[in-house]
Amino acid sequence: MKIHFTKMQGAGNDFVVLDETRSRLNLTAGQYRYLADRHFGVGADQILTVRPSPAEGIDFEYVIHNADGGEVGQCGNGSRCFARYVRDKGLTDKDTIRVQTLSGVLSPKLNADGRVTVDMGVPVLDEPRVPFDATALTPTVQGNGRTWPLAFDVQGAPVTVPVAVVSMGNPHAVQLVDNVDTAPVLLWGPLIESHARFPERVNAGFMQIVGRGHVRLRVFERGTGETLACGSGACAAVAAGIRLGLLDSEVHVDMHGGRLTIAWSGQDSDSLFMTGPATTVFEGQIDIPDAA
Ligand SMILES: N[C@@H](CCC[C@H](N)C(=O)O)C(=O)O
């Protein structure tokens, strides 16, 4: 099957964007994996598929697949690329677009400076809803937040790391590190991603605090591996840092692919907002094998 695609990136987190506003492609998990493959396909961290409005008052729907072919509920950088895509393709002329996702309705807003701001909803810090199995663990309480001792084996040696667990519509485990450049992201990331206490697996964040309004972050993403940026990971890390009393309500998050700005009051009743770039890289056509 030959399909048309648009390649996009948001702070270096890259996407293959597919248009299903007129008809469904009905791709299999194997075909999503093929598209994401950097050697045989286009290459992407995630595939973002845009669909027509599912209901009155909603402009579009989109679904997200990780590079491993699994469908997921949330993608911060993808939500900004979605907004840029539907505007640049002339699918809408709105500045603020309401879109249905697996984890709820998002409203990305295109700013005059080219960046996109997304209301990412209220961070979920209630462990069972992340979901995180805290059975028989005792948290360390700090500020209005808490961390949990996550134990795992690294090459036969036991390690216990304090993590804050947060859902932004997808699960995150955030730990503090002295320096993201030397943090064991590639060694520990896969062990945390598939840790038994996270029944839906987890995105593993490593956050270095530079100041109360500035952090550096690396994220080993569930279903993809380390990416140059993770939007929901930036939101989760800042939400955790604010609750732990370490960060102010507006924070610049520097990742290897670029900077996002996250704003949150820290209150359970208030949404968190993410602002950052979204760029089209190129367009093309690719033949996907039926049996990919
Ligand atoms: N890169 C994304 C997150 C994509 C989904 C994630 N890997 C998961 O499995 O939850 C972002 O920018 O948020």
Automatic annotation (TrEMBL):
Pathway entry: Amino-acid biosynthesis; L-lysine biosynthesis via DAP pathway; DL-2,6-diaminopimelate from LL-2,6-diaminopimelate: step 1/1
Active site: C75, C230
Residues at the site labelled Could be important to modulate the pK values of the two catalytic cysteine residues: H172, E221
Gene3D superfamilies xref list: Diaminopimelate Epimerase, Chain A, domain 1
Claim: Cell wall biogenesis/degradation is one of the keywords in the record: no
InterPro entries according to UniProt: DAP_epimerase_AS, DAP_epimerase_DapF
Catalyzed chemical reaction(s): (2S,6S)-2,6-diaminopimelate = meso-2,6-diaminopimelate
Highest taxon of source: Bacteria
Catalytic EC class: isomerase
Self-association and partners: Homodimer.
HAMAP family referenced in this protein's UniProt entry, alphabetically: DAP_epimerase
Name of the protein: Diaminopimelate epimerase
Species in which this protein is naturally found: Acidovorax soli
